[in-house]
Amino acid sequence: MNSPIMVIREEDLVLAGRIGTVLKDRGERVTTAESCTGGLVCATFTAVPGSSEWFEGGVVAYANRLKESLLGIDPALLREHGAVSGEVAEAMALGSISATGAEWSLSTTGIAGPSGGTPEKPVGTVYVGIAHRDAGSVLAHSRHFLFRGDRNSVRALTVASALAALSSALSGGPVHALPWESRP
Questions:
Q1: Under the phi-then-psi rule, with left for phi > 0, alpha for psi from -120 to 50, and beta for the rest, what region is 107?
Q2: Which CATH class, in words, describes the domain spanning 10-183?
Q3: Measuring CA to CA, which residue among 50, 62, 1 is closest to residue 25?
Q4: What are 56-80's pLDDT values in tens digits?
């Protein structure tokens, strides 16, 4: 049996610290909306000393009804695409920005396993969403991953991917330049 306790990986903590430095220097903040990671992205950010200067907070919305009530996701979107989809990852990120006023948001949704997978969406299917508010407009993007491994591995890889996505967006120019599926 997997250990139910997840440990923050050192490389994720280092990357979160770099992200925090960039955000602090820009006077920007980040928020999270998590499902399959259950608050692990939030925990990684808050493990960085001084994160209150750039981390706004996060929502863990595991159940669809919380995705709807806390993040404002349209129930029709959930019915049409399912909770584990790029569309919902983007909506989660947008909802988090809307709720907090932060400039950046990361979202995670997926099937960490060991059960819950289908032929169309097997265990390890994950979507990471990112949204950015700049000059009055908000753009959202999502990326699909298929991770292999046990539940803890899928969740750890999701956290690492979300942090890498934000780091890339912060250092690589506009969000829409990311090689991701994009929806304005």
A1: beta
A2: alpha beta
A3: 50
A4: 999 999 999 999 999 999 999 999 9
